[in-house]
Write a sequence for this structure.
C-alpha cells in the first residue's frame, strides 16, 4: 500500500545537544531514552486521507540506537478517527514499508500502540509538544551568532525529511502504564517527510 506523510516533527531525549545518535556516535550516557511527536499536515495511506493525524513514539536503547535491541511504544492521537488510526498503525509499526520498516527491524521489545493526547506548537516564541497527559515538553531553541536564528543540522541520520533545529529542554517524559519516567535534555524540531517509496 502506498503512503506518504508530510508535516512537523519534534523530539527530545536524555542526551546532550545535539543527540549523538544523529551522527552514529555513542549516546551521552551510554544509552538513549527518546521521544518524538509528529503532526501530519498532509498525507495518505492508499485512499485514506491522513491530514491532521497526530503520532508519537518513545524508545529506550540498550547502547546505541543503531545496535538494535530497542524497547518501543507507539502513540496515536486519541482524537484520531478509526480509519486514520488503523492506517497510522500500519505505517508506524513498519508494516507499510518505507524508512519506518527499516527502523522497526531494530526493535526487540514492542510495547504496543497507545492512544493519548498529542500536541505540537512550534509557531510561537515558546514552542512545546505533548505526548500523553503527564508529559508536556517546553523547548528552548538554540540560537546562532545573530541571536535570532535557530541552529540547524542538515543531513543527519535521523532527520526524517528535513533540517533539524536544535533546542534544549528541562523536562521529563512519563508513561505511568509502562513505568517510564525519563529526564529530557536535548530537543529538536523541524519538518517531517516520509513515505513508502523511501
Amino acid at each position: 500500500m502506498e503512503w506518504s506523510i508530510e508535516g512537523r516533527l519534534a523530539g527530545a531525549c536524555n542526551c546532550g545537544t545535539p543527540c549523538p545518535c544523529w551522527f552514529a556516535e555513542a549516546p551521552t550516557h551510554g544509552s538513549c531514552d527518546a521521544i518524538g511527536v509528529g503532526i501530519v499536515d498532509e498525507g495518505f495511506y492508499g485512499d485514506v486521507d491522513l491530514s491532521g493525524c497526530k503520532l508519537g513514539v518513545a524508545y529506550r536503547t540498550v547502547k546505541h540506537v543503531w545496535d538494535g535491541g530497542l524497547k518501543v511504544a507507539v502513540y496515536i492521537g486519541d482524537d484520531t478517527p478509526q480509519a486514520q488510526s488503523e492506517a497510522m498503525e500500519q505505517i508506524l509499526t513498519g508494516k507499510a514499508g518505507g524508512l519506518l520498516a527499516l527502523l522497526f527491524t531494530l526493535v526487540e521489545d514492542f510495547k504496543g500502540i497507545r492512544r493519548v493526547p498529542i500536541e505540537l506548537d512550534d509557531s510561537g516564541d515558546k514552542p512545546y509538544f505533548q505526548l500523553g497527559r503527564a508529559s508536556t515538553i517546553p523547548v528552548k531553541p538554540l540560537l546562532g551568532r545573530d541571536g535570532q536564528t535557530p541552529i540547524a543540522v542538515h543531513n543527519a541520520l535521523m532527520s526524517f525529511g528535513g533540517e533539524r533545529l536544535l533546542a534544549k529542554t528541562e523536562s521529563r517524559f512519563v508513561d505511568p502504564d509502562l513505568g517510564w519516567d525519563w529526564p529530557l535534555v536535548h530537543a529538536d524540531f523541524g519538518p517531517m517527510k516520509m513515505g513508502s517509496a523511501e
